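Field reference: sequence -> structure
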Amino acid sequence: MLLRDIFSRLRRVQSLDLNAVDIDASLPSQFADLDAELLPFSDLFPFPELRELRLSSVIFNSRNDIMRLLAVFPRLCRLTASELLWQGRGTNGTPLGPAERESVPRMLINLKALWISTSMRRSWSGQRIKRSFATADWATYVADYRRLVLQLLHDTAPTVEQLCITTADSLAEVDSRLYTCVRDVKLLFRNLDSRSHLPFSAAAPTFLSRLASRDLTVLTLCFQVSMTWTNTNWSLVDWPAIDDVLVRLHRQNTDFKVIFRITCVVGNQPTLLGRCASSADVAKGLTDFLPSATGTHVRVGVSAYSMTGPVFYISPSGELLDEHSI
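Structure field:
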């Protein structure tokens, strides 16, 4: 009631961040026989002007409740979804009402920026999951989550201009040809030193080659490593295929550029790449890996910083700029 009272006074909120919370839309058992009704999500979150929603480590009662929440924000244009859980595995929960079924597709088609992370960790199946689940059927849950992610990626594709995907799963099921308006794409290659990233890495060149948007201007490829640049097994990346894709994307749009950002993880803690390599080391390595792209003057930048910070362009000429990617 306190949150509801506070939120009701904040009608002009445009950004909402829900992190590590439970959103249970089920009716408590003690009220089941009293003909009581739950108030809709729109009553708890009365934010008709909301533009940006970030969901991280959020537990819902069912898959439908995720869509039910999204439906109450008609002006939503930026969505970040990371590590979502729901209790009603095997069913989708209470069906969406007629108004909700109309609102969800309309909201999704208005999205301009989508950040998707499926970096589900088994550490999630600790104390918090035990409170919410009678049994932890992880394989079933992960399959359900993958279907949810694919639905979001598919339904938002026609209008999304910024796309960020973080996953260890294959991109083979994502039809990138649908992203006809995308301008900015970011892919994060996790755990490059292990073979767990192979499904994602193997499908990445095909995913990129099918991008038909002539508005694509920035591609950011983030690699997570735990060893020095020279000791990392870079053969796990299909560099010839990446090289060919970059040339093709440059032909589609001469303003196209690609930025390689490297995250060095030491002792499970992200740190600056300086402990693993210098920008010069990375630049030399990428020049060898991308002869066609650098030879045809594709704008190729590298950075020793994981998310933001200076970018050194090895092609078409050495140039240091302070740039930020999504």
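Note: DSSP finds ten helices and 13 strands in the chain.
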